[in-house]
Every structure is written in structure tokens, then in C-alpha cells.
Design goal:
Blueprint lengths: L28 E7 L2 E8 L7 E6 L4 E11 L2 E6 L4 E7 L5 E8 L2 E9 L22 E9 L6 E9 L5 E7 L16 H11 L3 E5 L16 H16 L4 E11 L1 H10 L8 E4 L6 H13 L6 H20 L3 H14 L4 H11 L2 H8 L2 H5 L6 E6 L7 H14 L5 E6 L15 H5 L6 H14 L2
Parallel strand pairs: 11-12, 11-13, 13-14, 14-15, 15-16
Antiparallel strand pairs: 1-2, 1-8, 2-3, 3-4, 4-5, 5-6, 6-7, 7-8, 9-10, 10-12
Amino acid sequence: MKLPLLLALAACLFRPGSAPAQVLPSLSGDWRGSLGPLTLTAHLRDPAGGPRSATLDVPEQHAQGLPLEFSTRNDSVFLYLAVAHARFAGKRAADGHTLVGDWEQAGRLIPLTFTQLVAGQASAAAPRRPQTPKGPFPYRSRPVTFASSAPGVMLAGTLTEPAGTGPFPAVVLLTGSGPEDRDETLFDHKPFAVLADYLTRRGVAVLRFDDRGVGQSTGTLAGTTSADYAADARAALGWLRAQPGIAQQHVGLLGHSEGGTAAVLAAGRPQGPSFLVLLAAPGIAGNELIVQQTVALARLQVSDPAALAATERQERELLAVVLQNPDNAQARAKLRPLLASAGLSADRTDQVIGQLTSPGYRALLADRPARDLAQVHCPVLALNGSKDLQVAAGPNLAGIRQGLQAAGNRDVTVRELPGLNHLFQTAATGSIAEYSTSEETFAPVTLQAIGDWVLAHGK
């Protein structure tokens, strides 16, 4: 859940004017624009009489060569990024070297201008990430594979072990929602690489792994839920406990965001973890979590109380339809008119309905942490940042504390860390736009809090 699971419903389509047919210069070249904190560089190939082609680079997201569909009509230019269900529609400015238009994604329309780069102009500099570990390292690191809970699926990861013979306490890291690699890479940040390096230097072995269908892991993430991820977490625990040099009675799970949900589910089963670390993990009902997230992020752009109230009502109405209609056909029939009234295009309506009725999203809506936390009896550390807008610290930490203590768990440590966002970066507002612009990957205060607690519970 590092990126918001919300619906932005105010949308309108860019409709270029109809100008008489004309012969225009080729668009071949490199075109750069800024979309909030992201730099987009489109490489257009527009040969005379030949087929057009295009790719897109987004350096802040470590993405290069993303395929674009590229078409024109008179002086209008259209680009479609299928992997993100996003499109650009714009017009050539009079100078011939500027494309002015709008970027449509997730139902939102954002102004975007592409400017043609002169030959030889340098590419955008990669963002600084000073905390990313660089060798040589004072510990052992090796690639590993182990069987997933799904038949025939192998999960690939990295095991880092302190120098010496052990036995060492150990922890398995579980990433948030969506396809994630073992480093939990986002906007060129690698928070799990930073965390693994820190803990291993302090004497804790760390296993981190690619999600199903991501990186070197086989299988597919499509159709999976947090319960599937919890089963993979248990498989990782079992494999790690069997390794020489690991203290079998001191192997825990650390889950970030929705990875925390999977960690809680795994902890409530036999042969669960010896301890649990929850980073920005949900502690309230899933449908309420999404509503609060939507309103919190909207509040950064909208100050009108009536508009915010309308956003909240609309979100609750959509989620209620999904919860009250387990049959997807019935849910789709009731969602379509609601989304159409919000002004979404037909294809975007289909995409949103597909998201809302997917197994993973339904599982998120139905998540009830209080029920699952009641099954957790191992020691728990729960941390959250005061500026987290995706999983608000106050209600979610309170829910975690209450759920654990109601079942008699007394070894519970809950801390709200001032000034940190959902990724545990020092933040001004908590806005998602700050994730990529921050040079900090993981606030040192969070690293120390985790390391001190794990070592205290891994003796």
C-alpha cells in the first residue's frame, strides 16, 4: 500500500479540435515533461511513410523503455501507456517543439507539457539515494530460492548473515501491496535493502524475497490475496529456521503496510513467528482504511468541507456496493451507473470496476484486523509515522494495541514517530509526491527503533 488504493473520480476527456488536414514536420526525437515529482521522457519515432513507435522513461521509478502507443490527428498527438492505463492527449505549439495537453490516469486529468530535447542534451540525472548500501560489506550475502505455498512456484531472495558462526536471530521482510521486488524498490528507493543492511550489521540475519511473478520469483501475483502472501511468509519462516547458524526460536516477521496484514495472518497460525514487527500496518477495518486514506489525500488539494464530504460519501457508496454484492456480475451492474455519473470514460470505468471486484481488493475491503490480531500471542512492535496519509497513525496504532491486548497479549510496543510518512521518510506534509523527491530512504530513528527491539527480543 505504498501507493494509494483509492479512486479519483473527477475526469474529463481531452477532445482536440478539428483542423483541416495538413503536412506537419516529423515528431521524431526525445520529449521531456514533468508530472509532479516524476520526469517523463518520451522517445518518439515518426518516420515519413513508416510505422510510428515510442517508448517512455521514468527515472524516478527506475523505469526505462516502457512501450507507448503513438498516434496523431492533424496537429494533435496521442500517447497511450498500457502498463499504467494512462494516456496523453496534446497539441503541437506554434514553435513545433512543444506538446501541450493533459495526462489522464486513474480518472484524473493533469496538465502536462512535453518539450523536445536538442540533440545531445543530457538525460535527467538519477535521484540521489545516499542510504542505498554499497559494498564491501562486513557480512555474508547470498541469493537463495525456496518453495512458495503455491504448487510449483519458487520464490527467489537474498539472505544476509552476520559474520561469525551464530546462531543468529533472524527476520523475514514482507513488502507492501502490488508487485514488489525483494528490496521493496519504489522511486529508486530500496528501503528493504537499507533495513537488511542495518539489521545484519547489528547481528540479525535477514531474508527478503521477490513477490510471486516479480524479479526472479516464478508464478504470478494476479488473483492473489493477503492470505496467499501470509502462506508464502510461513514458507519463508520454515525455510529460514532450517538454515544452519539461525537461532530457530528467534525468527520473526517484519511486514510493511499490507505486508503487515500478511504478517499478522501468519502469526496467528501454528509454527508462526517468534516475534512480529509491523510498519504502518492496518489496524482498522479495510473499507474504513480506504475511505480515510482517500479523504486524507484529497485534503491536500481540497479545502472545501462540502467537497471533502462529497468525496467521502461517494467512496463509501462504491465500497458498500462491493461489500454487499459478493457476486461480481451484480456488483458490476450497480457500480457502472455510479462511475458513469462521476464522468469516467467507458474504458476507465471498466478498469475501476475490475480493480474494485478483484480478489485482492475484495480481501482488503473485508480485512478485519481486530479479529486476526486476537490470534497473535508473540511479542509485537508496531510503528507508524505521524504524517502517514495512507495508514493514519492514530486510529491504526490504537486498533493494533486494542486488538492484541484484548486477547491477552502483554508484550506489545506501539510508537508513533513524529514527522515521518508512510515510507518512514522525514516529510513535510506526507504527500505521495514527497516519496520520490526525498533523498532519505529510511529515517535513522526508525532503523534504530527496529534494531533495538529485535535484538532485545532475539536474545
